[in-house]
Amino acid sequence: MDPTRDDIVALPVVEIELSRLCSDSSPRTSGEDPEHVETLLSAEGNLPPILVHRPTMRVIDGLHRLKVARLRGDTKILARFVDGTESDAFVLAVESNIRHGLPLSLADRKRAAVQIIGTHPQWSDRRVASVTGISAGTVADLRRRGGESGNEARIGRDGRIRPVDGSEGRRLAAELIRGDPGLSLRQVAKQVGISPETVRDVRGRLERGESPTPDGSRRLQAKPQPLRWSGPDFGRVVDRDRLALLERLKADPALRLTEAGRTLLRMFAMHSIDGQEWGRVLHGVPPHLCSVVAGFARDHARVWAEFADHLENRASDLAAG
């Protein structure tokens, strides 16, 4: 059982006797919350099925619903069964309790993270964080405090195995970004074998003139590259191609006939100016505002990059069905 991927809703619902259920080993150390129990008691209709670990009959998710059933005098309750190890069942219990119903306290989530680090040491900090609802940095701190040095490699949220020391991957990502700044986060991540978020961090460090690795935060002494707005033929070809593509987008009814589409087209049109016009705008910025405008431009560039990444992720998800 992979507790982070099971499609719980697709599992069959059955009736089970309350006397067969075990309610210990919950990640919620404070026990049941009386106010939440009262809220559920006043709810009309059937409550959602609880989740039960079949090998141990422990309730993974739904202790408050179980309490309500007992207070009502019920002898049976609707439930879904999951199989797998007890450690995987605990992970699923934690994940279920941070996604809906009464959320776990921060202290409970941290305690759960410590337990999951112990039972799943091969999981990355981000993967543990996604299950427990705390930050990856907090997970890393808990791992260090527990004296867990970790494996040479860990399994990420996407199921891929990555080395704990990612300095080589960051170095390769930096080389790719320098060679082709137009590559998306996903493209770089796929070629190098690191996460898109790591690529985003590398790109940000390069933009600030920093080392691509966190431990090398000194400013890079790179030779400044002059702006080339209207280089020989390359710049003009790119401009013509981009303008031709914009005209095709303007003619597409899916964009032209919707408010969101028209907004997008207007935004594209504002940025689709030729190299000479960009040069005129560049030299028109007052000297005392250069740093401010540069920062503003970089912020907008990051927004567009994130927008592009979301679109590519959406396209990939649609292609995958």
From TrEMBL:
Region spans: Disordered: 203-226
Ranges of residues in domain ParB-like N-terminal: 14-98
Transmembrane segments: none
Protein name listed in UniProt: Streptomycin biosynthesis protein
Taxonomic source organism: Kibdelosporangium aridum
Organism placement in taxonomy: Bacteria, Bacillati, Actinomycetota, Actinomycetes, Pseudonocardiales
